[in-house]
Amino acid sequence: MIPADALTRLKSARSIAVLTGAGVSAESGVATFRDPDGIWARFSPTELASMDGFMANPQRVLDWYAHRRAVVDAVEPNAGHTALVALERWITQRDGTFTLITQNVDRLHQRAGSRNVLEVHGNLVEDRCSVCEEIHKGEQQLDAAGLPVCTTCGGRLRPNVVWFGEDLPRDVWDASERAARDADVFMSIGTSSVVWPAAGLAHTARSRGAAIIEVNPTSTDLTPDVTWHIAAPSGTALPLIVAALEAA
Ligand code: OAD
Description:
alpha/beta, binds 2'-O-acetyl adenosine-5-diphosphoribose, Rossmann fold, elongated, SIR2/SIRT2 'Small Domain', 11 helices, 39% helix, three-stranded antiparallel sheet
């Protein structure tokens, strides 16, 4: 299932960058966005993942994110997450560098034990002030309408997740682009590669000479441009890759 020349390329890599998407968490029981029963087939992104939707009905948006937090709290990292922890350990023990760029907001990579994680779309755990941008976590102060507000400036709190039409966090994005530029091998795992700018990272890596390994049971917009497409779930393919590297 894993092409021998992909393993050879990984074995000689000094720098690996990985981009993950919702597919990596599918085997933990977290729905993806664009598969047939995905989140955006059941819910409106305009209502639930945009500032306009939040302004129109903040309570509805907060309730939906509270539900998503509860879903994520109730699941565990899967074999794909664990294999990425082992891949990071494997290359750092050989003095190589490893960057895990994730579009996922579920924190499952960190719960599995991944260390160098860049969250380009934020996370579900924190709130952010919509006025002063301060990050909040834990106990909340409520306004007269029962909505959470910033303890510093009184602005309305929102989930610390990037919504449609919003910029990605600048420092996180800059670090992600650097990792893509420096990578010998770039792995795109469990993402449909349709959401930009994250989808552009693989192209950045490729333009600088990196080999691209895609792990996804189905083909994506990126597939025509990859070096190897491994058509399998990440919870199956990633442990095989790591076992082969560790055995070498
Ligand atoms: P998508 O739902 O667009 O794509 C999920 C991908 O995972 C699909 O290509 C599936 O084929 C693949 N997949 C499903 N099961 C898999 C498995 N077990 N192993 C490997 N791959 C599997 O999710 P993303 O690409 O992550 O943005 O979506 C990107 C962004 O769109 C998300 O971060 C989110 C959404 O709007 C924000 O929340 C800002």
